[in-house]
Automatic annotation (TrEMBL):
Name assigned to this protein: Putative GTP-binding protein 6
Organism: Ursus maritimus (Polar bear)
UniProt domain Hflx-type G: residue ranges: 296-460
Gene Ontology MF term list: GTP binding; metal ion binding; ribosome binding
CDD domains given in the database record: HflX
Biased composition (Acidic residues): 67-83
Keywords attached to this entry: GTP-binding, Magnesium, Metal-binding, Nucleotide-binding
SUPFAM superfamilies xref list: P-loop containing nucleoside triphosphate hydrolases
Amino acid sequence: MWALRAAVRPGPWLSRVVRGRGAPRAAPWLPACPNRALAAFGSGGLKGRGSGGRGPRANGPRSRAGEEEEEPEDAEEEEEEEELLRRDPLLPVGTQRVCLIHPEVKQGPGKPQLTRAEWQVAEAEALVHTLDGWSVAETMVVPSKAPDGKLIFGKGTLEHLTEKIRGAPEITAVFLNVERLATPTKKELEAAWGVQVFDRFTVVLHIFRCNARTKEARLQVALAELPLLRSHLKSSMARPDGRGGGSRYIMGSGESFMQVQQRLFKEKEMKIRKALERLRKKRRLLGRQRRRQEFPVISVVGYTNCGKTTLIKALTGDDAVQPRDQLFATLDVTAHAGWLPSCMAVIYMDTIGFLSQLPHSLIESFSATLEDVAHSDLIVHVRDVSHPETELQKASVLSALHGLCLPAPLLDSVLEVHNKVDLVPGYSPTGPQAVAVSALLGHGLQELKARLEDAVLRATGRQVLTLRVRLAGAQLRPHPKAWRLQDPAIHCECLAKWGLDEKPTTHPARRCEELDDTAASSTGWPSTRGHDIVTRQADPSESAPLK
Ligand SMILES: Nc1nc2c(ncn2[C@@H]2O[C@H](COP(=O)(O)OP(=O)(O)OP(=O)(O)O)[C@@H](O)[C@H]2O)c(=O)[nH]1
Ligand SMILES: [Mg+2]
């Protein structure tokens, strides 16, 4: 007797099987394995050839199958997109010793909740260290009443800062930890301090630029950059009399230099939006194909550096996934196949991390990348519970998720994963919707997988069924390999022959798929490929082959 557990969507074929009659073969459009379903993430979803990534591979495997689905790029379009991506560097290249200034609001409505100045400074330092060759030479926390206003510091504070910066020749730049610096303020401070001054937006944008691999991500960064370039232009052209600088009209065109530049920016913006729409159309098409293939999709979201990529690596065993101790290491949505306890195949989506005080234009540009999240069956919210700002991070992620206009059932069923518990001795999660794990050490993964399976079954309407099938019955009798596998020696031989791992426990799903195909071809038993079948165990009482 074989015990057969399957996570299936109940359908007419199932009742025929249960009644002992032959079931129809799997529909021809069912995918051969979850890896093929990864193809459906295509250019935006996976980093593949068609996605236009020029840089080195980011963390995660590419979808080879996805490439098959891609239409060849129009050479002219390709050239135009590359032209849109040609830009001057946002930040100076080479070694930089940065003075980090954090304006702290001590009281009043501007005082940040759920955080402290030292934690915000730590995050700003992490941002600086993410940049190649950049280090923090000095950190200063200074009082400020309105860090986002034109006058960030009072007169006395400004004088004190100027004295310190001017007196420290090793400082090559200043990172002012405010969301966005008005260009006139930036110019004033640069004139006073004699070094370049950057805000959070510019630093984050630069990191995004360095880490973006796919063409879609790079175009999104280019789009997010436009407001910055526009305001630079405005301030460089501004004159005390309020009129644009340079010659009034260019070559008799009737347009001032400023007007020409603004028109060029507008044209560039339109071109980028058009190019993005082209790429997104492809991604949506591939997304539809993926949904037809019906593998449940689990989106893994969370604050940057909370361990999303590490968790996916732990859940899938995918060695190609490379987590890095870096903010915004993952900038492209990638898909990875894994299996849940009943060997149900699922696809995990690794996503871009969130950050508090991220400028709106940046979030907006990247929200399309997160379209895949809206189409997933389940969202897993990974939290770094060892981080002092874990509550603030949670609030930032939830507010970003709500901003994505996700379907209500998806938002209501979010499963919280409390990660890095190895750094918090004795940690136990509060609330029923949370599982404590250490993705790095592999703790708590079994419980997490069980919780994921429950949630996926609920979200997709699948059911786990256990069927008992007599080996001598109509379904399996003509299938010699099925019973031969009960002999351990032959078992290994068969596994080796099929190119599988000799340890029967390593890839039960793959083993079942192989078995399943053979069973399907010789017995009329339905192929379980694409149907998340599952564990198949020999009953110990029937160790001898049945006739
Ligand atoms: N101690 C400990 N470290 C962890 C754990 N999980 C992840 N890390 C570390 O945290 C750092 C960030 O991990 P990632 O998986 O890259 O984080 P991420 O959320 O994907 O980050 P981004 O892609 O940048 O948003 C790495 O150095 C990991 O080794 C954990 O359970 N325990
Ligand atoms: Mg990551």
